[in-house]
Specification:
By secondary structure, this protein is of the alpha/beta class. It is 45% helix and 14% strand. The chain has 17 helices and 12 strands. α6 links the parallel β3 and β4. α2 packs across α3 and α5 packs across α6.
């Protein structure tokens, strides 16, 4: 019997909730959607509060906004902020309750179980607050599942009332549980599972496509080098992206630049500038969902070698191997916010990027254009990404130096370390997620 057959039941309704805070929450939702059985059709419910997205943009772009974000993500102030915001969310649920009851009433088959998967803590807290009322009013079992979208134990991710919460590491799990004990919050079930990466990106390349990716690191072959820049939902670091694309093309005509960007008011100037560059393939769309789909599509169409990205949820594509569709080498720009530093710490802890001292050494060697020790080239086979220097010129120099040192060539010959913890490092996080939920549904009828 299919382990996921319980998800096919007509009496089960699945709702995905997300918030317009960048693209990360929607990317994770999309990955989880791709892991469902083909005949299961979930409902996507987004938060109507656009202020969430505006706050996200302010705290991502402006220096003062970043400072405020960092203050409320640490220590006593985080505890006060979490308590205040959690109480506010749980007290403002009327619209969400109306939306969900409308969705339930519109179903042809009357639902007996409602499964809500939340990839943002705001809607998760609100769902938790109305679970009992929904259950009583609609005579339905309500199950709330929370997927934490960074390896960051920020206290807002502890959602009292959640039935299952998935986190990417034991470290985050323990820190959230410690916080709950200190605050005397009701216990919840927190499970560790590999971060959910889109199963389509985890498929293995054909021999021909794998060869095309490997030809890009050759110093003698003139194969185009495909680089992808997915502009963040908050459209941060646009000046860095603009300059880096031009500088890379100056390094070599082999560079083929692909940029995916939302077409909104605050990206208009950037889009206009990119359209002037004949070597840039620019993909734009207004809707966030379309941007996520276009991102997946370009990996299906093109053997991307390098992806220059923020260390947000994209950092977890490091769980993929170079011979998989989404297994490009990840080049991380400057981290913004505690969660991005935490994601880099996760990668460093698992040896998927160099240590801080190794990064400093690499940047120094690149700056002086010197050769690195052969043993480090060999060590690079364990890495899936690198952190770029801060400024665009230094970043371009570093990338080109990595080609000359055969660092990228070594990284494409990825060698998995022994004794990896499969609950943290694996490419089947989506499969594990749904198996855990299927088991939960079977035992909680």
């Amino acid at each position: 019997m299919d382990t996921l057959s319980v998800l096919n039941q007509k009496e089960l309704m699945i709702i995905f909730t997300y918030a317009p805070a960048g693209l990360g929450h929607l990317r994770v939702t999309d990955a989880l959607y791709h892991g469902l059985p083909k005949n299961v059709t979930p409902v996507l419910l987004g938060a109507h509060d656009e202020s969430i997205g505006q706050i996200h943009r302010i705290t991502s772009i402006y220096a003062w906004g970043k400072s405020i974000m960092e203050i409320v993500q640490q220590g006593l102030i985080e505890d006060i902020f979490t308590r205040t915001y959690r109480n506010w969310l749980r007290g403002h649920t009327d619209l969400l309750y109306e939306q969900i009851t409308t969705l339930l009433n519109q179903r042809i088959h009357i639902a007996k179980t409602l499964l809500v998967v939340a990839t943002h803590f705001a809607l998760a807290h609100q769902i938790a607050a109305i679970k009992e009322k929904l259950s009583a009013d609609k005579q339905i079992q309500v199950i709330l599942v929370v997927q934490v979208t960074d390896d960051s134990p920020q206290h807002m991710w502890y959602v009292p009332g959640a039935d299952l919460t998935f986190v990417p590491s034991y470290k985050t799990r323990e820190q959230l549980l410690n916080y709950a004990r200190q605050e005397k919050l009701p216990p919840i079930n927190i499970k560790v599972a590999p971060y959910p990466v889109n199963p389509d990106l985890a498929k293995y390349l054909t021999a021909d496509k794998n060869s095309q990716r490997n030809l890009q690191v050759s110093l003698t072959h003139n194969h185009p080098i495909h680089v992808l820049f997915p502009v963040s939902g908050a459209a941060t670091q646009l000046n860095f992206v603009n300059k880096l694309t031009v500088l890379l093309k100056q390094k070599s005509p082999r560079f083929q630049i692909n940029i995916i960007c939302r077409n909104v008011s605050y990206t208009q100037k950037f889009i206009t500038e990119m359209l002037k560059l004949s070597f840039v393939k620019l993909i734009t769309a207004f809707h966030r969902r379309e941007i996520v789909s276009q991102y997946d599509a370009i990996y299906q169409e093109t053997q991307i070698l390098l992806e220059v990205t923020k260390p947000s949820e994209q950092a977890f594509k490091a769980l993929l191997k170079p011979n998989q569709v989404g297994g490009s080498i990840l080049l991380f720009s400057e981290p913004i916010g505690r969660q991005e530093y935490d994601n880099l710490a996760f990668l460093e802890r698992h040896h998927l990027i160099p240590t801080a001292s190794e990064h400093k050494y690499l940047w120094k060697m690149a700056k002086t254009n010197k050769e690195i020790k052969p043993e480090l080239i060999s060590h690079a086979r364990e890495w899936r990404g690198l952190i770029l220097p801060l400024h665009s010129k230094d970043a371009a120099d570093f990338i080109w130096w990595c080609f000359g040192q055969q660092l990228f060539a070594s990284m494409l010959k990825y060698r998995e370390r022994e004794n990896f913890d499969k609950r943290e490092i694996d490419d089947n996080g989506v499969e594990i997620f749904w198996k855990e939920i299927a088991d939960f549904l079977k035992t909680h009828k």
